[in-house]
Design goal:
Oligomer: heterodimer
Radius of gyration of chain A: 24 Å
Number of helices of chain A: 6
Number of strands of chain B: 3
Order of helices and strands of chain B: HHHHEHHHHHHHHHHHHHHHEEHHH
Strand content of chain A: 15-25%
Distance between the termini of chain A: 81 Å
Strand order of the largest sheet of chain B: 2-3
Largest sheet of chain A: 7 strands, mixed
Shape of chain B: globular
Helix content of chain B: 55-70%
Distance between the termini of chain B: 52 Å
Radius of gyration of chain B: 22 Å
Strand content of chain B: under 5%
Chain lengths: ~200, ~475
């Protein structure tokens, strides 16, 4: 039996009980510590179906025989306190491209800038070709290059009637607004684009 | 699922057998030591095979090594081995059942995806040179290597809860080793209170299945701390403890980037021991430096100067570590703990003065994550509940008055781990511009770093409370504790 010598141990017991009680009461506000019912164990699928900020290449690799990405330069070093005005591209991690395979990327050039160019390349014309992401919605969050406090968005577009699943496909990195980027399949890009982008 | 059970059971059994063979004959210590020995073997076999361009054989060799260890132990040291074997086998079965049958998984997180990607590369015998950049390096080496032992194209899902199980064993071993002569009722009461406080904090439960190296690093740090405290108290270091210690230092250094710094911090009390021979000192330090060098060389890290051969890099790193064993540095070495504490404090205070404005967000994040989020009106956003508040309050009660050697040392190590984690976070942020102290939310890396050391904080408070004689009335049981 525990016998109490002085008030300190009683105080500690009360404090501990209070903490345990508050922790339990507030448990749900912290979100579930873990989930149940997971059935996906294949790494490529587990990662590719997630809303991971880096997984655009894995998503595309899972839908075509071989994918080539161009205009995805992302080696621009992060600069302190950068803002949307400094953004020149979006992040494609070379390591992720290399690890999962099925994709090769040309990192020579930044995305083509179509922000202030009157062409067919705009969200309205692209809408019928947009790809619904495995985790829902049409726009993935990606890191801006250089990194900014708020992430950029990335959408993917291709014409399902001209490029079929398990074909080879080339995707071009394009900037559509200050913080919105797109990966557009080459044939669709050529079909919709009538003017040269800003160099 | 069957292959995962077999692999995890082999890691558990082979590891425990290895620990038993080297003389670690305490069940609660043999289980974590076994995991760490198996991890060291995995790293060394993989790195060597990688060096000779035969990575594809590394997994097979690892399994053969574990099976051979199990067989040798079965013939040579059967006495008592069945206990840790049964316990670790049961834990590996439960771990696989939890992930594969119940489908339990932690909150999804970007770092977990990175780690899974690295393990996918390792499993598929991919080119390790891909990993030479900053981001893969941050994800560590030891933990992805263990995950890569899963079925084809899958991760070894059960290893994560199994690592957590070994962490619980390590904490229980150390508490028991330090207070085994204290009245049982007192130990059980304090243990139950602190366990309840810890396991009602969401992050503790989240870390059971969270895919990241934090818990593996935590196991290593608890073992190094424990062995350091026991060696300081008893003024002796057994061969068995030395092996466990070297394995723990090796794994701590290979698991996460900040593990290098934290391992260096927790070995300070050992480095300062006067009775330690230079040979043993060299072994402990080399466990750290060689682990770092092997990791960097295998990843062809950007930290290796361009054009420098990997063996030269390794030789320089190991030789630099060995410099600490030269007699000229003995004066510093014997005072390593106070010097370490003062040095870390000076760095932290200096950084606070220089970058106070930049740290404003971090200060708020620390308060909001660990105590209370005043914006949302909810408990700490870091998911720690009121655990840290509780530990601080209890510590306040036991800090005054006489302290035992082991409690004083645990306090110093805890303080250095706090400072080390804060400084590691500053350095990590500093690579991208100004140093940083984190952001609000559980997934902030500093907030997750506390997973690595909270076990030691809990042990510190437990030991302080149990050994505080003035707080307890003796209930008949003789206290033959090591109070000094």
């Amino acid at each position: 039996m525990i016998r109490v010598k002085n008030l300190r141990i009683v105080t500690i017991a009360i404090v501990a009980s209070g903490i345990i009680g508050v922790n339990l009461a507030a448990f749900t506000s912290s979100g579930d510590p873990f989930t149940s019912g997971n059935t996906v164990f294949e790494v490529k699928k587990y990662v590719g179906d997630s809303d991971w900020i880096e997984n655009a290449p894995i998503v595309l690799a899972g839908r075509f025989k071989h994918v080539r990405l161009v205009n995805v330069r992302s080696d621009y070093k992060a600069i302190a306190e950068s803002d949307a005005g400094d953004v020149v591209g979006f992040s494609v991690q070379k390591e992720i491209v290399d690890i999962f395979g099925g994709v090769d990327a040309d990192f020579s050039d930044y995305p083509l800038d179509f922000r202030s160019t009157q062409t067919g390349l705009n969200f309205e014309n692209l809408k019928p070709y947009q790809f619904r992401l495995p985790w829902g919605g049409y726009e993935a969050e990606v890191r801006c290059v250089p990194a900014t406090a708020k992430d950029c968005t990335l959408a993917m577009f291709w014409n399902k009637t001209t490029v079929r699943r398990h074909d080879d496909a080339t995707f071009i990195g394009v900037r559509l607004s200050d913080s919105a980027f797109a990966l557009i399949e080459k044939h669709l890009f050529e079909q919709l684009n009538v003017v040269k982008p800003i160099a | 699922m069957l292959s995962e059970i077999l692999v995890l059971a082999l890691i558990a059994a082979g590891g425990v057998s290895g620990a038993w063979l080297v003389g670690v004959r305490t069940t609660l210590l043999a289980i974590p030591t076994g995991l760490l020995l198996a991890t060291v073997a995995r790293i060394l076999i993989f790195s060597t095979c990688n060096l000779f361009g035969v990575r594809q054989f590394s997994t097979g060799i690892f399994y053969v090594a574990l099976a051979a260890t199990l067989l040798i132990a079965a013939f040579k040291v059967r006495n008592g081995l069945y206990r840790p074997l049964i316990l670790s086998f049961a834990a590996s079965l439960i771990s696989v059942f939890a992930t594969r049958v119940l489908g339990l998984a932690s909150t999804r997180h970007g770092d977990s995806y990175w780690i899974l990607s690295v393990s996918h590369l390792m499993q598929n015998n991919g080119d390790m040179l891909i990993l030479d950049g900053h981001t893969p390096l941050k994800r560590g080496f030891a933990y992805p290597l263990l995950l890569a032992l899963g079925p084809q194209d899958q991760a070894l899902s059960g290893i994560t809860p199994y690592i957590f199980f070994t962490l619980v064993c390590a904490v229980a071993w150390l508490v028991w080793a330090l207070v085994k002569n204290a009245p049982r009722n007192r130990v059980y009461f304090v243990g139950a209170v602190l366990a309840a406080m810890s396991f009602t904090a969401p992050v503790t439960l989240r870390s059971i299945f969270y895919i990241n190296g934090h818990t593996l690093l935590a196991v290593s740090l608890v073992l190094v701390t424990g062995i350091a405290v026991l060696a300081t108290r008893d003024q002796r270091l057994s061969n068995a403890h030395l092996v466990a210690l070297c394995a723990a230092v090796y794994v701590a250094t290979s698991t996460r980037a900040e593990g290098v710094a934290l391992a260096a911090i927790v070995i300070l009390p050992l480095v300062s021991l006067r009775f330690l021979s230079r040979g043993r000192l060299a072994l402990i330090i080399t466990s750290l430096t060689s682990a770092f060098a092997v990791w960097q060389a295998t990843y062809a890290s950007y930290l290796i100067p361009n054009g420098m051969p990997w063996f030269l890099f390794m030789a320089i790193v190991v030789a630099a570590g060995l410099a600490a064993t030269v007699p000229w540095f003995d004066w510093l070495r014997f005072r390593a703990v106070p010097i370490g504490l003062i040095g870390l404090t000076a760095i932290f205070v200096g950084a606070e003065i220089k970058w106070h404005a930049e740290f404003e967000r971090g200060h708020r994040a620390l308060l909001y994550n660990l105590v209370y989020n005043f914006d949302t009106g909810t408990l700490g956003s870091g998911g720690w509940g009121l655990l840290f508040v509780g530990l601080a309050v209890i510590l306040g009660f036991v800090l005054l008055g006489k302290k035992t050697v082991e409690f004083r040392l645990l306090l110093a190590i805890s303080a250095m781990l706090v400072l080390g984690s804060l400084i590691s976070k500053m350095l990590d942020g500093g690579q991208f511009g100004d140093p940083d102290l984190g952001r609000i939310g559980w997934s902030d890396s500093l907030n997750r770093m506390w997973i690595q050391s909270f076990g030691i904080f809990v042990i510190t408070v437990a030991i302080g409370l149990i050994q505080k004689e003035t707080m307890w009335l003796r209930s008949g049981a003789k206290n033959k504790g090591n109070n000094s």
